[in-house]
Amino acid sequence: MSTGVYKQDDPRLRPVPLDAYPWTLIPSPPTPNAIVKVSLIPTSKLVAPLRLFTPAGDDDETEEVPSWSFLIEKGDESILFDLGLRADPEHSPRCVQNTQDGRVCLGAGTHGYAAHSRRKIVEGPLRQFKPLPGKGPIERLTEHEYDLSRLKLVVLSHQHFDHYGNLDTLPSPAPPVLLGPNSLESIGPGYPADPNAAWPKSWLDKYRFVELPGADAEGAWEGEIARLRLGAFHGGQHELRWERVGCFDRGVDWFCDGSLWFLDGPGHCPGHIMALARVTASPPSYILLGGDASHSQDLYLPVPTSPEHDLRLPLPVIDGQPQLAVDPALATYTIGQLTRMSAEENVMVLLAHEGEAEGVVDVYPGDLGEWKAKGWKEAKERGLKDRAEARRRGRT
Ligand SMILES: [Zn+2]
């Protein structure tokens, strides 16, 4: 964990050059149906100071950003990746509820922070988030008469309230909830046992949570995580384990055909994970669901054309502290992984709050697998290079 005071140009926050990342070939699809269908489901939105997301934001500038949920379908079974914000914030634990001025204190996940910075975060910039309630993914799927019995797993990119939605809306029996490594110890014991906790204790008691193993897990996984695999796609032969894929040291091939990987993506908060989904087989193309590894295109784009011409911005620093990253060094490395993956012409990265994609990509029941054919990657990044170039000229 990094400590100390940072300046905005601190070398520790400098974007990592792409050649610093190792590369492991992403396996070819073994069969034409070794893919998943990924759909974007809009939920509530958030208003936040832009300055928390990018150093290019002015001090008083705010931004309204989406908070997305994704339906990942494989045959008759499906997974929800993130649930967005809950539609009824008034039923949240106290520290997540709106305060009188309509703002929200984001306490979720702050157990993972050092005590001194926890108070700073809860009472500082994260207090400036304002939720704009809207329908959750379950409600939207129901409107489309989606058969919720097909939902076999919920995956949370991380533990924050703008991703955990409302577990109480899940169908009964509720699917298990998969979390990144070491999430639960930073969530527990839940509210009101801990008056500052952002997770209801009732959820922790009621639902089945399973964590991905830590970075040090060697060999095939055992125990609950090994039993969690979805039925139809596992012949019982494939063992789950951390494997290298692309520029990632740790990915798990969930369906054992390379169609869906969950990736360890640390830095933003304890247990932050991402997903890499193969959405077409011939030729293969992918979507990388980046969660909150970054909150702005400015940090992972544009992809540098050379080490000398790198227009990416570092994590924003306010009052000497890098924002929205419990471990700034790890977060900076993970953001560079988004850039490295985005350098592949058959990979489109999508952040959980990447508002630039709004109105560009189709939403559920539309299929994000059409991104390449429809030019959505270029469309959501249009003008970005020019803006970054203008910023650079403004600096020099
Ligand atoms: Zn978020």
From TrEMBL:
UniProt entry keywords in alphabetical sequence: Hydrolase, Metal-binding, Zinc
Superkingdom assignment: Eukaryota
Residue span(s) of domain Metallo-beta-lactamase: 66-353
One Pfam family linked to the record: Lactamase_B
Gene Ontology terms for molecular function: hydrolase activity; metal ion binding
Keyword set includes Thylakoid: no
InterPro entries: MBL_superfamily_lactonases (IPR051013), Metallo-B-lactamas (IPR001279), RibonucZ/Hydroxyglut_hydro (IPR036866)
Keyword Mitochondrion part of the UniProt annotation: no
Cofactor(s) listed in the protein's UniProt record: Zn(2+)
Similarity comment text for this entry: Belongs to the metallo-beta-lactamase superfamily.
Protein name in the entry: Metallo-beta-lactamase domain-containing protein
